[in-house]
Design goal:
Order of helices and strands: HEHHEEH
Radius of gyration: 13 Å
Helix content: 40-55%
Distance between the termini: 19 Å
Structural class: mainly alpha
CATH topology: Arc Repressor Mutant, subunit A
Number of helices: 4
Number of domains: 1
Oligomer: single chain
């Protein structure tokens, strides 16, 4: 995840994966995010740190690029296991994002 204020191809791809799952009313899980970020073989601590930083950076970029105060990616506690999150992007944010990054 880059530190510039615009989305790179890698970031756009991750956001599109979350949008795709959200559009189908499916959960984008911690495992999905770990795989997308290439963290599958890292320690739990590293995975958590990188996931949190990545989501925060993507949300920050969204706010800057779209001059918007809402979070692009929402974290919701998993119903199956409250220790874990699932990640979703609502339809309004998905439409706005896809209007710029097809």
């Amino acid at each position: 995840i880059s530190t510039t204020n615009d989305f790179n191809d890698f970031e756009i791809n991750i956001v599109k994966k979350i949008i795709s799952k959200s559009a189908q009313n499916e959960a984008f899980t911690v495992e999905d995010l770990n795989n997308a970020l290439g963290l599958a073989k890292k320690t739990i601590e590293i995975q958590k740190k990188v996931r949190t930083e990545s989501i925060n950076k993507l949300n920050h970029k969204y706010k800057i690029v779209f001059n918007n105060e809402t979070e692009l990616i929402e974290r919701i506690r998993s119903e199956e296991d409250r220790r874990y999150y699932i990640y979703i992007i609502n339809n309004k944010n998905a439409s706005l994002f896809l209007s710029k990054f097809k």
